[in-house]
Structure formats: C-alpha cells, structure tokens
Amino acid sequence: METTELIKKVRQIEIKTRGLSNHIFAGEYHSAFKGRGMTFSEVREYQYGDDVRNIDWNVTARMSRPFIKVFEEERENTVVLLVDVSGSREFGTMERFKKNLVTEIAATLAFSTIQNNDKIGVIFFSDKVEHFIPPQKGKKHVLHIIRELLTFEPEDRGTNLNEALRYLTSAIKKHCTAFLISDFMDNDFEKSLRIANHKHDLVALHIYDWREAVLPDVGMMLAVDAETGRQQWIDTSDASLRKHYADSWQRRIDNLQTMFKKAGVDNVMVRTDEDYVKQLIKLFKQRA
Questions:
Q1: Nearest to residue 81, comparing CAs of 8, 145, 21, 170?
Q2: Is the dihedral of CA 23, 26, 28, 29 positive or negative?
C-alpha cells in the first residue's frame, strides 16, 4: 500500500471510529470496563455500618475516637487487543471482508480506551504470535495501531488460539482487559481461555460471515480453505449437503458458547454485514 493511500485510509478509519467512541461508547466503555484495584484516598470518622476492617488504628489512637480508611477505585486500566490475522480473515461475501470489520472494531475500541486515559496494546496472532505492540497511551500510539491493522502481513496463515492466550498470560503481568477478536477457526483452547480469564478480564468478539452459516444453492462450486489452501469441488444443489453444512456450523457455535460459558468469558457475535455498533453496545450494557 502506497504511503498516500495508507494515510488516506488511516484518516478515514480515524474519523469514523473516533466519532463512534466519542459519541456512543464513552460512557458505556467506562462503566463496562472499570479499573480493578482500590487505592487509599482519605480517612474519616467511623459511622454506623462501616466495615470495621477499614479502621485506621493509628489515627483512631491519636484522635481518641474511631476513624476509617476510605478507598476509591483505581480508574486507569490496560486494554490489550488480541487480533486474529490468519488466512480466514480474508473471507467475506456481503458488505466487507472479516479483516475490514476487525480493523474498524479494533480502532473503535482503541479510541474508546485512550479517551478513558487507559493504555492500549495489540497482539497479532495466526498459528503463532506474529507481532506485539506493548500498551501505551495517546492518539499517536492509536494511529500507529491503526496503520498496523491496515498493513500487517502475517508469516503464517493458520490459527492457534492457545498460543495467543498463553502469550497474553505471560507477557502482560498486571491485570488487563483483553478483547479476543477472531473467527475462532480453532478447537480445544478451553484451558488457555480459562487461565487467561482468571488472570485478566477477557472478552471474546466472534467475527463471522453469513456464508459460513448457510451454503447457497449455486450448483458446483470450488471451495478453498483460506488457511490450508486445500481445494475441493462441492455440489451445493445437494440439499443434504447444505443441511450438513448448516448443522456443522450450529454445532461449532454451540461448542464455542459452551466453552465461553464454562470459562466465564463474555462474548458477542458480529456478522460482516451487521452494524457492529449495536453488538458492542449490547456487550457493554451486559457488563455494566
């Protein structure tokens, strides 16, 4: 991508996603992803009903009457985006490719993050961790993230969610909010999911296209696996084949939902032709 074209695309993404974060997500984000820790603020006289465990015994002894410590929530948070850059992100049959939707969602979350004075970082992954942008604050940092989202080319095309989740757990030492943005073309990552969500606050955003759920009746069609490159001719006019395709999709979704529920991970599905704003607000309201 040429420099002038890249600058134009970055600017377009910035205008759209920063506007969304400013006017729609600011309050929702703040209430949905609060800071976790508590920090000492002040002392005041003990009142009936206060937790006696918060009594400040030094001040109490000095003043000859009980005082308690008052704490407030640490507002600053760190957000990490785990972005799936495997080959299947290049699929899309409706309004946009999955990778375009991922870029917009990631940029919107990034601007919402810095608007709340939080740090934002990104882990790009395929079947390995491809690139890590450490968490920082500021608009300049977010624009760098958007440029990477638009231009990054992975070395591999497969998907390994275990690798991404293990990297998150080991690389980010302090508690963070992590958005796992993927089409989840992988199996058997429940243990890593559970461990990552125990240490961090993990949220899953499942990106998919309508044609992953429903096979159209268009006769003979060459199907290509975007991650392995394997090709196969299939007869889409076969009703039993289309039913098997739809049933396989539903089983995969049911398994994912069961996995997320067991691990305690909040999640939402976003289709390539859908308004992702509605889905994100729905997610935020669930967590508020």
A1: 145
A2: positive
pLDDT in tens, 134-191: 999 999 999 999 999 999 999 999 999 999 999 999 999 989 999 999 999 998 899 9
> Which uninterrupted H or E stretch holds 8?
helix 3-20
Residue 257 and residue 185: Cα distance in Å, rounded? 14
Q: State CA 280 to chain mean position distance.
A: 10
- Ramachandran bin of 49, using left for φ above 0, alpha for ψ from -120 to 50, beta for the remaining angles: left
Backbone phi and psi for residue 24, each to the nearest 5 degrees, phi listed first: -120, -50
**Where does residue 152 rank: exposed (0-12), middle (13-18), buried (19+ CB within 10 A)?**
middle
How far is it, in rounded angstroms, from Cα 151 to Cα 154?
10
Tokens representing 64?
């000859």
The residue assigned the tokens 């919107």 is 108
Q: Are 77 and 34 in contact (CB under 8 A)?
A: yes
- Does this model's pTM top 0.85? My answer is no
264 φ/ψ sector (left φ>0, alpha ψ -120 to 50, else beta): left
Residues of the chain below pLDDT 70: 1-2, 23-27, 29-31, 34-41, 71-75, 92, 94, 288
- DSSP string of 184-234? ------HHHHHHHHHHSEEEEEEEE-GGGT-----SEEEEE-TTT--EEEE
Give the amino acid at 114: I
Q: What are φ and ψ of residue 14, in 5° steps?
A: -60, -50
